Amino acid sequence: MITRRGVLAGGAALTVLGAPRPSLATTPGRLITQEASRQIVPTDYPETRLWRYALDGRTGPATGPTIRARQGDTLSLRLENGLARPTTVHWHGIRIDNAMDGVPGVTQSPVGPSETFDYVFDLPDAGTYWYHSHVDSVEQVARGLHGPLIVDEAEAPDVDDDLVLVLDDWRLDAGAQITDDFENRHDRSHAGRLGNVVTTNGDMDWRQSVTAGARLRLRLINVANARVFDLALAGVTGWIVATDGMPLAAPRVIEGPFALGPAQRLDLIVDIAGEVGDEVGLVELIRGEAYSQATFVVENGGSARTAAPLPLPPNPTYGVADATNARKIEIVMQGGAMRGLPEVMSGGVIRDGRSLMMEGLFWALSGQAGRPDTPLAEIAQGETVAIDFVNETAFPHAMHLHGHHFHEVAPDGSLGDFRDTTLVQPGQRVSTLFVAHNPGDWLLHCHMLAHHAAGMGTWIRVA
Ligand code: C2O
Ligand code: CU
């Protein structure tokens, strides 16, 4: 196995790429899935074979291209499946028309090899979103079927540059190839499929030159299968201005480390300080050591802004989330290594946990392993819902609800960040509140993708 530390310690030259430049793609496009290969690890290793999206022939630095549109636009894309496997596209975090949500067996049939599917949907919200395969996602996302979806505000904030930073980890073998152990029982029952090569925009040593004093918008997207990035700023000051695409009412100063769970996004605004030649930026913290996640090399003096950034303009709201009349749902996360699975429902019958684990199902949500035939809850459109996530397992989980964002609720009842994915630590209870405004059948699952595959998924119906 290649480790990042091992490769870096080996002193091999690292591939340095420019940052991807966003470009506009608002007209109907051809979104093709295809096999490709790319240099992920240093050039004394072979290129890594991967799967990726291409939009009208354009790809991203490693995998999918950035799809960029304006708030209020209608996105119209024809998926053409160039792979030998069925696939779909899920538009993660978009408060989308249910029929376009890309969930096989729920909102559409899988798109077979050489088949097509037309995705046409409105973009009500500005912000940082992403798209990825929702078929065999442990494998298809690990192989590279994902990309950023950026929806621009009518009026852009005052920054010198706007950069998309796709954070990923890859599990590569000694020949720099993606390991095909997608059914790995240890991953499924423990922390998910963690990688051994960590990248930003497909690069192990992503860096870019900036002017001292520059103010940058950084759009962080965690596309990893299971990795929780513990991040910190190094030599820059910054604010969080949006969580999972949704603007904060007031920018929040970043004072210490911050976590980015699988599928989560953060929009930061950072001010570059330092002398010419300094290297500053974003680091990942691993056991007390800081590893560069994005490096900015300071060039030329410039004058810094003195005022804090303004909040991003708010996205539309759909009704008021009022806790007093909320429908209460408790979702207890159960199972996994070190806890084991009790007797639960699976496939419509009561099963004992041991036999389910033999079959590769290790997790349950409130006594149900795997997606049930009937929804966890049927909710009237416009009803306020309070979901409490209770983590009785020994691992963190990144719980994602399709089609909606929810507030994380503070212990004093105040409404916190508005997210589509919340990270729930072992032993923790996370309370959420939202208005179920979007009709349809919506998945609710752990975005540690091996956990979802191993039983940690359910759904709600809003009608
Ligand atoms: Cu980002 Cu159900 O997924
Ligand atoms: Cu999980």
Automatic annotation (TrEMBL):
Q: Which UniProt keywords apply?
A: Metal-binding, Oxidoreductase
Asked if Iron is a keyword of the record, the answer is no
Q: Which Gene3D superfamilies match?
A: Cupredoxins - blue copper proteins (2.60.40.420)
Cite the GO molecular-function annotations of the record: copper ion binding; oxidoreductase activity
Task: Fetch the CDD domains from UniProt.
Answer: CuRO_1_CumA_like (cd13861)
Plastocyanin-like domain ranges (all copies)? 62-154, 162-273, 362-462
Lineage: superkingdom: Bacteria
Q: Which PROSITE patterns match?
A: MULTICOPPER_OXIDASE2
Name the Pfam families for this protein.
Cu-oxidase, Cu-oxidase_2, Cu-oxidase_3
Note the SUPFAM superfamilies from the entry. Cupredoxins
Q: Which InterPro entries match?
A: Cu-oxidase-like_N, Cu-oxidase_2nd, Cu-oxidase_C, Cu-oxidase_fam, Cu_oxidase_Cu_BS, Cupredoxin
Coiled-coil positions: none
Q: What is this protein called?
A: Multicopper oxidase domain-containing protein
Species whose genome carries this gene: Kangsaoukella pontilimi
